[in-house]
Amino acid sequence: MSSVLYIILAILILSVLIVLHELGHYLMGKWLGFGIVEFSIGMGPVLLRKKGKETDLTLRAFLIGGSCQFYGEDQSVPEEQEPNGAQPESPRFPPEKSFNAQKVWKRFLVVVAGPLMNVLTALVLAFVLLLAFGTTVQRGTEQLIQVTEVEADSAAERAGIEAGDLLVAINGSEFTDYDAFSATFSAVRDNETDVVVLRGAELKETAQPEGDGTVYTVSAEGGERITLHATEIRDLHTGNNRLGVSLILVTRDRVETKYNVLTAAAASFPYCWNMIRQVYGALFDLITGKACISEMSGVIGTVSIMSDTMQTASAYGIADVIYVILALGALISVNFAVVNLLPFPALDGGRLIFILIEMVRGKPVPPEKEGMVHFIGMILLLVLIAVLMVSDLINCFRG
Questions:
Q1: Helix, strand, or coil (residue 255)
Q2: Is 216 exposed, middle or buried (0-12, 13-18, 19+ CB in 10 A)?
Q3: 75: helix, coil or strand?
Q4: Are 178 and 141 in contact (CB under 8 A)?
Q5: In this predicted model, what pLDDT tens digit does every residue of 148-175 receive, in sequence order?
Q6: pTM, entire model
Q7: Cα(18)–Cα(26) distance, integer angstroms
Q8: In terms of CB atoms within 10 Å, which of 120, 214, 299, 354 comes out highest?
Q9: Distances (CA, A) of 363 to 100, 105, 110, 360
């Protein structure tokens, strides 16, 4: 499958997750008796419109995202024109079906239903992932570092390193994982170094049941230790040391756990909770300055990461692609839930703040003031989206 098709697949997955968010608002609104003018798939000009008894279903030009328009929610915003310039007819709802005429607890549930649908989606995806693939946890940090490819005219080729060699030591310093290898190699101050490899070794894996899982241990048996001398390891463009090899990291000890329907359902909750903690941790790092905005990804960056990851996984088979779709789908769905619940104007979290204020005050904030706050929030949100888009494009061009 070409990279373009993986990009299209990533966009469709992202769009489905956004539509499911809007579906949460829609289903809760229907259940509680809200008037819903339109449920839309995609953004931009209307391509197709199916008029319902109460709610119009529309398909828009750009299949990324969606929306759910409640009757009376934003009366100051005119409805979008049809392609021929005519105004679509709004379904006639009685005043009691207006969004702002509903009881405050009903509006609270409708607003929070979108993020809750994202959490439910993540739980379902996590359940399927755990049931189909189980989990693999590395025990300890030890890894076997195996060369898979040697670049032509590189320091590794000149030294005589071959595909299949296991890297063992640099200048007499042995290492047991990639981080230690990278640190040792980067610390070489001369433009040359001795590299010890294990050539001709056979990787053997043993399995041992342990509790609900299985412990797999990989060891290198046989082979010959060879000391090679690599010269001209300094990259003239970056000033960093470069060996010129592609590597595969083989975990020495790992624990694989398989799940049945009940255990997968139970394990999906801590699985998603761990992702939620990671997202909040990343946001905290951003707020405290431990991370910068350039490390964030917008729509373009997210699509790029998804498509690249799926394309890489495709080299190992369709099962790995499905695994990536499930894992990334759950992670992105959790991101949608967390971000939408942030107390920022124009997001669901911002709307919830005004609803909570209304609960405390016993009366709503004047609509014109709330509308102004959400308008300012939307402007700031669009600026952030534009900044992230530029950052994503720069990162894409840089590769």
A1: strand
A2: middle
A3: coil
A4: no
A5: 999 999 999 999 999 999 999 999 999 9
A6: 0.76
A7: 13
A8: 354
A9: 12, 13, 19, 8
